[in-house]
Amino acid sequence: MTYDYDLLVIGAGSGGLAAAKRAASYGAKVGIIENDLVGGTCVVRGCVPKKLLVYASQFSHFYQDAVGYGWEAVKPKFHWSKLTEIVDTEVNRLSQLHTSFLDQSKVDLIRGQASFLDARTIIVNQGQGKTATPQTFTADRILIATGSEAILPKSPGIEYALTSRELFKLQEQPKRMAIIGGGYIGIEFAGIFNALGTEVIQIVRGDKILRGFDDDIRTHLQDAMHQRGIKILTESQVERLEKTVNGTVLSLIGDSAPPTVEVDAAVLFAIGRAPNTADLGLDLAGVAMTDRGAVAVNEWSQTTQPHIYAVGDVTNRANLTPIAIDEGRAFADTVFGNTPRAVNYANIPTAVFSQPEVASVGLSEDMARERQGQENVKIYRSIFRPLYHSLTGSTEKTLMKLVVDRQSDRVLGAHMVGKEAAEIIQSVAISLSKGATKQDFDNTMALHPSTAEEFVTMS
Ligand code: NDP
Question: What integer pLDDT is reported at residue 133 of this predicted model?
Fold first, then answer.
């Protein structure tokens, strides 16, 4: 049996692009189907534009901090529309760059909406309505890499809510904004808009933000965000949204929540993301899903249909860009490169680009105590005012923490809140993946004066 392609990839995001190019490098004939800009969530409406907004917003702190260093105070003016326009231009440039990489790799880009007709056939609808011109393609192997989309609850008035997708396209910077959710996206946008001068109210259903992170990190960041002027309402939930002449009114429930909160037409829901599986026709292909709506896969990213694979957020394993990329490459190495390898999910470093920044690798204190036993864990913690702030007048402190196994002395986790946390933790992650002990950290010469040196001088 001959097919149109050796591999058809559905979705040109981080995982799909990585898999397509790697498979093509082994000589496979590859096609990739995308109905939006090439690049996926991370490049088009996620990590990359978000980080640019973080950078943009941080200038407000630099202007303030500079005064402590002898600069005259200035009243800088910020233009939201100018920022979103240049970020949009940059996103388009990057998307075109990714398209040209596909071209260089001899991967066919097929534009349109894909769904399975059967286990070997994909139909692609190009255009909409009467102009639609469906095309079918067959493939020996198929990779599902369709990512995820923001979840919205069914609350009355939810049509007035925004997701992170729409935030990048906001016409005006809101003066007052509500953010629902205390996870990655909610925290990051709270920091961005707060630094840009928007009044931010964050509504969190639990008692603290960032569930799953080390408890000290959660408390420290929550206090720091509060100090920077973000109002965090904990144990509160939104019951309904209503439009008023002045903006949007949220009705809240929760013991400590005010009954209502009014903001501009800017209510961001960031309460998690769900795998993009709707309208894919997975049942026609015989691909099973998990009970949480993700494509079910084994350690090789293989679905219940042996020649169909899935990587990235659509599988809801560890939903981070570098993981999707590695899953895509591991799939291609295994299936087309004759070098079988499964992704190593241990010690994944992660950062929240909050203000101040958070980064972590390995086990939190609670996880370590649960896994190793209460008494078998030793904690090293350092909380200090960074040198940078000795002249700015800010009282914000940096927190750094090591979680160590008492018996083996192995470092099980490293956590930080403070400037450049992501950059520092990325390097620490190498030590953890090599099984470094606390003694190895101590034996490493400090680099002075730096913040990172604290990780090798803790006692
Ligand atoms: P997260 O899963 O990170 O956080 C969801 C938040 O919403 C939690 O605070 C959760 O509370 C709350 N929540 C969940 N359901 C409800 C509900 N029904 N009502 C009210 N609150 C609710 O999701 P995000 O949307 O912030 O981000 C999605 C994913 O995107 C992340 O998990 C991450 O994988 C990825 N991402 C990574 C980034 C990075 O690496 N820097 C940046 C942005 C996104 P509770 O804690 O109580 O469950």
Answer: 82
Ligand 1 mean position to 99 CA, how many Å? 30
Domain ranges of the chain: 5-46+83-149+274-335, 158-271, 350-456
* CATH for the 158-271 domain, from 3.50.50.60, 3.90.45.10, 3.30.70.100, 3.40.50.960: 3.50.50.60
Report the atom number in ligand 1 closest to the C-alpha of 164: 25
- Chain centroid to Cα 137, Å, comes to 32
**Closest residue to atom 47 of ligand 1, CA basis:** 206
Choose the CATH number for 350-456 among 3.40.720.10, 3.40.50.720, 3.40.1080.10, 3.30.390.30.
Answer: 3.30.390.30
Phi, psi of 399 (to 5 degrees): -120, 130
Q: Which of the residues are catalytic? A: 448
Centre of ligand 1 to C-alpha 376, Å, is 31
What is each CA distance from 293 to 312, 382, 455, in whole angstroms?
14, 41, 40
Structure tokens at 374: 């209460």
Top-level class of domain 5-46+83-149+274-335: alpha beta
CA of 298 to the centre of ligand 1 (A): 25
For ligand 1, whether the C-beta of 319 sits within 6 Å is: yes
Decide: 181 in ligand 1 pocket, CB within 6 A.
Answer: yes
Do 5-46+83-149+274-335 and 350-456 come out as alike in CATH topology? no
Take atom 42 of ligand 1 and give the residue whose Cα is closest.
Answer: 184
Q: How does pLDDT run across 21-78, given as a tens digit for each residue?
A: 999 999 999 999 999 999 999 999 999 999 999 999 999 999 999 999 999 999 999 9
Residues forming a β-bridge with 154: none
Cβ atoms of 360 and 402 closer than 8 Å: no
From the CA of 457, how far away is ligand 1's center (Å)? 34
Length reported for the chain: 459
Q: What is the pTM of this model?
A: 0.97
Both tokens assigned to 249:
């009114």
Pocket mutation for ligand 1, best pick of 271, 314, 316 (most atoms within 8 Å of C-beta): 271
